[in-house]
Amino acid sequence: MNYPDISEVAKLSGVPASTLRYYEEKGLISSNGRRGLKRTFDSDIYEKLGLIALGRAAGFTLDEIAAMMSPDGPRIDRGRLTEKADELDEKIRQLTVMRDGLRHASACRAPSHMECPSFRRILRAATSGRIAPPANPAPGK
Amino acid sequence: MNYPDISEVAKLSGVPASTLRYYEEKGLISSNGRRGLKRTFDSDIYEKLGLIALGRAAGFTLDEIAAMMSPDGPRIDRGRLTEKADELDEKIRQLTVMRDGLRHASACRAPSHMECPSFRRILRAATSGRIAPPANPAPGK
DNA sequence: TTGCCACTTCAAGCCGGCTTGAGGTCAAGC
DNA sequence: GCTTGACCTCAAGCCGGCTTGAAGTGGCAA
């Protein structure tokens, strides 16, 4: 049991050391001790980082993810999963409308976009709130 | 020509006055003068706000939108529209993978998620970066 | 034993898109 | 003419997810 230290985990996982420390601070992961100053981790850290990446990709916040991560393996409420899936469905629907609108508008030969019926249609959709701005988590940098 | 003032625009468009001021500061819109202290706007303001909403929904930043808004009607590079449509395609693809994964995981009867092959599959996808975290614009509040 | 250097901590900064708060000003109604 | 109250400006704050910078510390090699 030569536990991986923080730099090794960073290198293998691609997650920066600063982020690992941040995750630890937030309670998403925990180190099992130190070798000198350096944190060491259990080797299941990689799986945990995967779960975190997964949760992020699904649109959960770090706090939500932290709440789902229990000491011995993740215990995830299946209801929350379906809920998130439904949210994604809605998002996918909206993005699809947007995408089709954009494609049409870019292909359309009307002299200006405001004269393109399709463009005006998606414009009305945006105005009336039928498609929403991202309202997503923020990027790090 | 009784130009709409800021509160009227806010009421009709649903965009808060503070946001309108912010948009003006950013150069996305411009008022045509004042009535007392109150800004007044040309009546094409609503169309412009629609375009802004549309751009936001498509994933453009306010700065990008500002760059596309020219004095006399929007002048939008069709290339950028296709580009954005392609980005949306990719995003939709990823979200669809996520959604299917989530649905399967929530329905799956494996005793714990880590023993569910489907869950492990999307976990690997997230780990390997094949599906990415949102990295989207931040929400206002 | 001394120097190096990668790690550490802690606080602060950054991004985008706004909102909020303090303190000022103007037009309209009494 | 004086109050009212909605607007104004300007600066600062907020959200999430990190990164960055200054200053400290430990282990290891020479």
Strand order of the largest sheet of chain A: 1-2
Strand content of chain A: under 5%
Number of structural units classed as domains of chain A: 2
- Looking at the overall shape, the CATH architecture of the largest domain in chain A is Orthogonal Bundle
Question: Could you explain the architecture of this structure?
Answer:
The structure is a homodimer of 141-residue chains. The first copy, chain A, has helices at 6-13, 17-26, 45-58, 62-68, 78-107, 117-127; strands at residues 33-35, 38-40. Chain A is mainly alpha-helical and 141 residues long. Chain A folds into 2 domains: 6-68, Multidrug-efflux Transporter Regulator, Chain: A, Domain 2; 78-128. Chain A has a two-stranded antiparallel sheet. In chain A, a hairpin with a 2-residue loop joins strand 1 and strand 2. In chain A, helix 5 packs antiparallel against helix 6 (117-127). The first copy, chain A, is elongated and about 70 Å long. Chain A starts with 5 loop residues before the first helix and ends in a 14-residue tail after the last helix. Residues 137-141 of chain A have low confidence and may be disordered. At the A-B interface, helix 3, helix 5 and helix 6 of A face helix 3, helix 5 and helix 6 of B. The structure holds a DNA duplex (30 and 30 nucleotides).
List the helices and strands and how they pair.
The structure is a homodimer of 141-residue chains.
Chain A lengths: L5 H8 L3 H10 L6 E3 L2 E3 L4 H14 L3 H7 L9 H30 L9 H11 L14
Antiparallel strand pairs in A: 1-2
The structure holds a DNA duplex (30 and 30 nucleotides).
